Amino acid sequence: HLRSRREVEGKLGEAGVPVTVLRAAIVVGAGGISWEITRQLVKNLPAMVVPKWVNTLTQPIAVDDVIRYLDGVIGLEAAVGKVLEIGGSDQLTYLEMMQQAAEVMTGRRVPIVTVPVLTPSLSSHWIAFVTDVDTTTAKNLIDSMATEVVVRDETILDLVPGEPMTYVEAVRLAVEEGGAKD
What we know:
Blueprint (H helix, E strand, L loop, with lengths): L1 H13 L6 E3 L3 E2 L4 H12 L3 E4 L5 E2 L2 E2 H11 L9 E3 L6 E2 H13 L5 E4 L4 H11 L4 H10 L10 H5 L7 H13 L3
Parallel strand pairs: 1-6, 2-5, 3-8
Antiparallel strand pairs: 4-7
């Protein structure tokens, strides 16, 4: 999943058109597949057994913040040809994300047990079984979840005004705007 993102960046850059790249981890909001997995797992399961990758650190971002950054760099000379990392204000593990989403959506934390032996293949089949995300997409996302994806270069904050939302704010907004359908 992460490798394919880099390949797309490369292909766009090869076309000879100036490209500004915004790199994000998980986008929280309707249509974000990782958000949909989180939302549906929390909604559909009273408890979870999860692999150790849930302890990987990531930096989720609200879809509204992504749009604000996209809008902010359009026509901005200082952004042309740059790779800009974007993220929300919180760095969280996937486990913390699921627990905070559960608190917002259900008012309680979900009991979660971490085990060392769930393979990406088994995990992807399980996700496909309990969510509407297909096995191939789930496996591609799971394969990337062992890689920490956090903002290391905050240049975007100097280019585009405004502070990003917290994860809880992003989840609340996603739920209010229909990101918690079903």
